[in-house]
Design goal:
five-stranded parallel sheet, alpha/beta
Length: 213
C-alpha cells in the first residue's frame, strides 16, 4: 500500500517534482516562463499536495537517461583516491585564484598578507568526505566559493575586519563537509555560493533541452 502523500518527506517530493519539471521542459512540453514559475513555486512550497499540483498536467516522467545525466551534471564532484594530504597557499603583496577542476587536499593552509585570494570549490574534485581550511588574513581580502549542496562549518575570528558567511543552509548528506577556521585582521573573508540552486537547475534544464533539440 503506497504511503499517503501527506506523510512522504517533503524533500523527496520536492526533488521528484523538480525532476519532472526539468524533464518536461527539456522535451519542450512547457515554456521557459512556465518552467521558471513552477520551479520557484516548487522550491518555496511546504505542502506536498501543492507540489504535486505543479506537475499534474505533465505526462513525461523521469527515465534512467535523465537520472544518469543529472548525476553527472548536478552532483558534487566526489572521487575517492589519492590527493595531497595538505597544501599551503601563501600570498604576500600578491593575489591568487584557484578554480576549475582541481583536486582538493584534505587540509588547506591559506595565508594572505596585503593580498587577495579566491578559493573556488564550485567545480573542484573532492577525494575526502571532510576538508579543513585554515586561513589567516592580514590587510587582505579572501573569498571562498563553496558548492550549494555541501555542509559548511565555520569558526572564524575577526579583528577590525569583516567576515561574511553566505553559505547555504541546506546540504546534501552525501556531499563533503568543509570546515573553515582562522582569523581576519584588518581584512575581509567572504564565504559564498557562486551559483544558486535555482541557477543550477535552470542551467541543467537548458542543457537537457539543447541536447534533445
Amino acid at each position: 500500500m503506497p504511503v499517503n502523500i501527506e506523510d512522504r518527506p517533503i524533500e523527496n517530493v520536492t526533488e521528484a517534482v523538480i525532476d519532472q519539471l526539468i524533464m518536461n521542459y527539456g522535451h519542450g512540453e512547457i515554456s521557459l516562463e512556465a518552467f521558471e514559475r513552477r520551479l520557484d513555486q516548487a522550491m518555496n512550497s511546504t505542502c506536498n499536495k501543492e507540489l504535486l499540483s505543479l506537475v499534474d498536467d505533465l505526462d513525461l516522467n523521469v527515465d534512467q537517461d535523465y537520472v544518469d545525466s543529472k548525476k553527472q551534471n548536478m552532483d558534487t564532484n566526489f572521487m575517492p583516491g589519492h590527493t595531497e594530504a595538505q597544501e599551503t597557499i601563501t600570498n604576500i603583496l600578491s593575489s591568487s585564484n584557484r578554480q576549475g577542476l582541481w583536486k582538493v587536499p584534505k587540509e588547506i593552509n591559506l595565508n594572505n598578507y596585503l593580498s587577495s585570494a579566491d578559493l573556488d570549490f564550485t567545480e573542484a574534485v573532492f577525494s575526502h568526505p571532510e576538508v579543513r581550511i585554515n586561513t589567516f588574513s592580514l590587510f587582505s581580502n579572501c573569498t571562498i566559493y563553496v558548492p550549494e549542496n555541501v555542509r559548511i562549518i565555520s569558526n572564524l575570528s575577526c579583528i577590525a575586519g569583516r567576515i561574511d558567511n553566505r553559505s547555504p543552509s541546506q546540504n546534501n548528506s552525501s556531499a563533503p563537509t568543509i570546515y573553515i577556521e582562522g582569523t581576519s585582521v584588518f581584512s575581509s573573508i567572504d564565504i559564498e555560493v557562486k551559483r544558486t540552486m535555482k541557477e543550477r537547475f535552470v542551467a541543467f534544464a537548458d542543457g537537457l533541452k539543447r541536447m534533445l533539440s
